[in-house]
Design goal:
single chain; alpha+beta; Butyryl-CoA Dehydrogenase, subunit A, domain 2; Butyryl-CoA Dehydrogenase, subunit A, domain 3; 2 domains; four-stranded mixed sheet; 17 helices; 12% strand
Amino acid sequence: MLKTGNEHLQSLRDGRVVYIGSEKVDDVTTHPAFRNGARSIAGIYDMKAADPRFSFKEGKERYSAYFLRAKTREDLLKRTQLHRAIADMSHGLLGRSPDHVSSFVTGMAMNAAVFGEFEKNLLNYYEHMRREDVYGVYAVIPPQAARNPEFYQKQNLPVPTLRVVREDDAGVVISGMKMLATGAVFANEIWIGNLIPLAPNQLAESITCAIPVNSPGVALWSRKPFERHAPCEFENPLAWRFDETDSMVMCENVSVPWEKVFVHMDAVLAREIYIKTPGHCYGNHQSNVRFHSKMELIVGLASKIAQASGASEVPAVREVLGRFAALEAALGAMIAGQLQDAEDWPEGFKTFNRRYMYAALNWCTESHSQIIDALRELCGGGIFQMPADITVMHDPALRQQFETYWQTPQLAAVERMKLYKLAWDLIGSEFAGRHQQYEKFYAGASFIVRNHSFREAPWAQFHKVVDDLMAGYDIPEIDNVRKAA
């Protein structure tokens, strides 16, 4: 079943508990901190429901294409095309859009035997997600404070990381915190899990399950919402409608039925479910595509900024723009390669090339800060020459002065201000600062991202190149060595 945007908005009015500081939010679809973000998500649902290219039919039902378990390269392309359409709607600024976690679960459902005794649960959950067109997000990292459990033991305090506190015939009960549920205020369900390896004795913490956002005992503690402080789209064109928010997930004695449990009391399996199935690859292919949409915005904005001041004719600036264009093309090529060299894995299915996907993931996390800094240099001080806000246009005298003195040969004053407002929301505002941090860590710390490439690299093949080369020559006669010397 394909949901519409209105149906998704209605599903968010379900009694969920969301806090902004001490303020409890009654309805995220109407609250000034979240309403435009909620509409952006609703727009995604309307877009894919209206275009048959973005869904597939199985039996008598039609499902969103990001639930497609690919068996051919064409299937993979269909998935990529929907990822691209979704990413383009937000210019890559909604990182955890509805196609992200859905891709993880879809990839897991391609090799569900990895889940052992919970295999059927995982397959049933996949069916539930695609049938109801569920928007799922995840919270798969322990709170940073939990890295020192001895502190809590000495203080006779509970360790904050989420864990199973008891179980019975109906299921398990979980309590504690998980981070960082990006998009959770707009989602239907939260996947609780562990992307970071656990210690062998962290059995209670190994729980992997799914919970509705409005489950009794669940509360979302939102970071500062940027949309709330965006007075209008002109002043903050990105924060105004693309702040997906991030939340700590607080659970107090939350009951999870056994059918929604996927890993329990197995610290190793809790992480292996992501890498022994295509889940991690499917989910992060979406991340690659999403970043590419963002790169297109950055490259276009860089060129427009240079044109606005006439600097685009300066050879050194053209070199910078050429580098931007080359970087965007390189990422596009890495994404295309994931399709071209797709893998036949697991048996009977197709998966994006994992090595190319992880290379792109590493490229994105390493490159974003440098790219944004280069865009910042192109902007120069022009951003700070603009009036405080666009209300100058409502005073006739100020308007005349503004339109006269702030124009350039290339651009009228209002259009120039509009351009710089957009640039600032991408490089300098609080919204921009969040994205600077987000792009560094959305796939984990850099050493975690690079470890994926280390794990997937064909080291035996690389070693063979060296060994074969060295095998072509042997110890020379001593006279030959002396002659050469």
